[in-house]
Structures are given as C-alpha cells and as structure tokens.
From TrEMBL:
PANTHER family: 3-OXOACYL-[ACYL-CARRIER-PROTEIN] SYNTHASE 3 (PTHR34069), BETA-KETOACYL-[ACYL-CARRIER-PROTEIN] SYNTHASE III (PTHR34069:SF2)
Role, per record: Catalyzes the condensation reaction of fatty acid synthesis by the addition to an acyl acceptor of two carbons from malonyl-ACP. Catalyzes the first condensation reaction which initiates fatty acid synthesis and may therefore play a role in governing the total rate of fatty acid production. Possesses both acetoacetyl-ACP synthase and acetyl transacylase activities. Its substrate specificity determines the biosynthesis of branched-chain and/or straight-chain of fatty acids.
Recorded GO CC terms: cytoplasm
Gene name, Swiss-Prot/TrEMBL: fabH
CDD domains: KAS_III (cd00830)
Protein name: Beta-ketoacyl-[acyl-carrier-protein] synthase III
Length: 323
C-alpha cells in the first residue's frame, strides 16, 4: 500500500498580539461581544515588513526540525494562501528560495480557508502518483492586510499565522498497521462567491481590496456543509464518528465549531480549538491547530484525526489521517 504519512508539524505566530480590548479602542465593539459571538480573545498580527512567505518559512523550519529532515529532503512545496507576497510568483517559490533550495517543484493553492485541506489532498495525490517523495505543505496568511480596520463586522474575526506539515510517501506492507492519509473529500460551489469575498484583484480593480462577508449566511451554510463532508470522508473508509480520536476543524468561529461538533455527536474534549488565541487565520488555521495539539501531546502516533475546513467560494473539505 502506498501512503502519505505526516512526518512532522510546525506552527508560527507573529509576535504582536492584539486583544479585543485594544480593537475596541478603534472600532465600536467590545470584548464581550466578540467572545460571545465568535469565541475570539486575541489575534496575532504580522509586523510591517513581515510577509506571508516569512511566516511560511518560520513554520516550515519548525516542521522540518520536528521531522528530523532538511530542505534537501523535500521535493514538493505547496503553500495554501489567499494573501501572497506578490500577485506572482507564488509564495511557494519564495519559500523554496528562502530555504536555500534549487531543486523540486513549488506552487500555491487558493481555496481560502479550505486551502490547507486542499493542499494536503493535492500533496497526497502527487506523492501517491510518484510526482515527489516528501512534501512541505504550508498554510500561511497575512489576512490582516485584507481587512478594513474600520469595519467591525469583519476586522475582529481574523489573524495572521502559518502552519506546516511534512508529508512523505511510504510503502506499507499489507499487514502493517495503517498510517497516513486514509481518505479525503473536497467540495466547492462558486454560486456562493459573493457571500465572502475580497472586492479587489488584478483583473477587476487592480487593487488588493478588502474582505466582505454576509456573516449570518456564511454561518447558516457552515455547519451543514462541514458535517456533510466529514460524513462523506468517513464513508470512504468504513470508520464512524465514534472511531475519531481528534477533530481538527478550521478555526473560524467557536459557535460554528461547537455546532458542527454537536451535530456530529463528538464529545467536546475531542475537538481541538485554538480560535480564542489565534482568531481565524484562514488557510493557516488547521495546521496551526494541528501543531498546537501535537506539541502538547494530545495527538499522538496511531490516533485517528479528522481535519476539516470551509471558506470563501464556498470551498470545503475534510481529510482523515491515521497519525
Ligand atoms: N461588535 C459589536 N457589534 C457588532 C460587531 C462587532 N464586532 N459586528 C457586528 N455587530 C452588530 C451588527 O452591526 C448588528 O447590529 P444591528 O443589529 O444594530 O444591525 C448586530 O451586531 C448583529 O449582527 P449580525 O451580523 O446579525 O450578528 P450575528 O449574530 O449573525 O453575528 C457573526 C455575526 C459573528 C459574524 C456571525 O454571523 C458569524 O459567526 N458568521 C460566520 C462568519 C465567519 O465565521 N466567517 C469567517 C470566515 S468563513 C469561514 O471561515 C467558515
């Protein structure tokens, strides 16, 4: 059996922390409103001159260290991001350069908050098809740069950060314990594009634009779509919700995560939640949550882990991994 296993995980958060109380000094909001509606206490914000590729490289170095590998061992880099340093080249090629690599291939994936789950699925396919041996898969965002900091309905929700995993192709004997990515389901429906989008881009306005969101409509779609895609992923394997050791959802919002967990029938102690301290870091949120749960010893070898995300597009997806 050819499988893509996770060798190591790493996360990076910019130094600067902005609390709800600090935001309340500049927009008409309150710590109480933000915590009650979305469960966020604070977020990290990248410093001036600190770019998405810098966050990505910092997370990548930690994932490499955790794997006992060096950039020489990597031949595929995929970065999931909505906030690239430049319109082109890709952040992935900048990461390749900053890691001192000349070999291999590198490209970005744009699926907004679902980007990391899409990137894991893409790396899994590449590795299983012999297009690489070890992949560095990163979710990295400087989402703060897409925010209108006078719009209280969006600016309180997001933060910056990066997370990375190293995936490796292995051949498992038929009687070996299962390991690695077991199943994935990815979905999108572009008819929902204007429920959550940025009103700028090279081919429309020539500007970067700002995030616009119809929050209650996003909320309405989120729980159903998340649970559907989790069930679709489980169905491919024969496992059930009861078999899961950990649920690592996209960290958009405490109420969405709790709603999805309750609908799935998951005990809250199996749900990894980092949204309070990270806010919504878009494509970085799942690998950041993963790295937190691996670092503190919750996720360990042999655990059955469900990753899940949903975001602009809409895009959504899930990936079932035996750690
Ligand atoms: N502080 C204080 N008041 C606010 C704030 C704020 N930061 N933001 C909005 N309000 C006000 C609104 O102006 C409105 O006031 P009004 O009644 O006087 O008009 C009131 O709060 C209620 O606004 P709603 O938008 O109806 O509030 P709702 O209860 O739906 O909560 C929220 C808004 C938290 C955004 C909710 O819709 C939500 O969680 N949506 C999901 C959005 C999300 O998580 N997006 C992340 C990206 S998508 C993803 O990653 C899955």
């Amino acid at each position: 059996k050819t499988r893509s296993i996770i060798r190591g995980v790493g996360g990076y958060l910019p130094e600067k922390i902005v609390t709800n109380a600090e935001l309340a000094k500049t927009v008409d909001t309150s710590d109480e409103w933000i915590q009650e509606r979305v469960g966020i206490k604070e977020r990290h914000i990248a410093a001036e001159g600190e770019f998405t590729s810098d966050l990505a490289v910092a997370a990548a170095k930690k994932a490499l260290e955790a794997s006992g590998l060096t950039p020489d061992d990597i031949d595929l880099i995929i970065v999931a991001t909505t906030t690239p340093d430049y319109t082109f080249p890709s952040v992935a090629t900048l990461v390749q350069m900053k890691l001192g690599m000349h070999h291999g291939m590198a490209f970005d994936i744009q699926a907004v908050c679902s980007g990391f789950v899409y990137a894991v699925a893409t790396a899994d396919s590449y590795l299983k098809n012999g297009l690489g041996t070890r992949a560095l898969v990163i979710g990295a965002e400087t989402f703060s740069r897409l925010l209108d900091w006078t719009d209280r309905t969006t600016c309180v929700l997001f933060g910056d950060g990066a997370g990375a995993v190293i995936m490796e192709r292995v051949e498992l004997a038929d009687d070996a314990p299962e390991q690695g990515v077991l199943a994935t389901a990815l979905r999108s429906d572009g008819h929902h594009w204007d429920k959550l989008y940025v009103d700028g881009g090279p081919s429309t306005t020539g500007t970067t634009g700002h995030v616009h969101m119809r929050g209650p409509e996003v909320f309405r779609h989120a729980v159903g779509k998340i649970t559907d895609v989790v069930y679709a992923t489980l169905e491919k394997t024969g496992y059930t919700v009861e078999d899961l050791d950990w649920f690592v959802p996209h960290q958009a919002n405490k109420r969405i995560i709790e709603g999805a967990g309750a609908k799935l029938g998951l005990p809250p102690e199996k749900v990894v939640m980092t949204v309070a301290l990270h806010a919504n870091t878009s494509a970085a949120s799942v690998p950041l949550a993963l790295s937190a749960a691996v670092a503190d010893g919750r996720i360990k070898q042999g655990d059955l882990v469900m990753l899940e995300a949903m975001g602009g597009g809409f895009t959504w997806g899930a990936s079932l991994i035996r750690w």
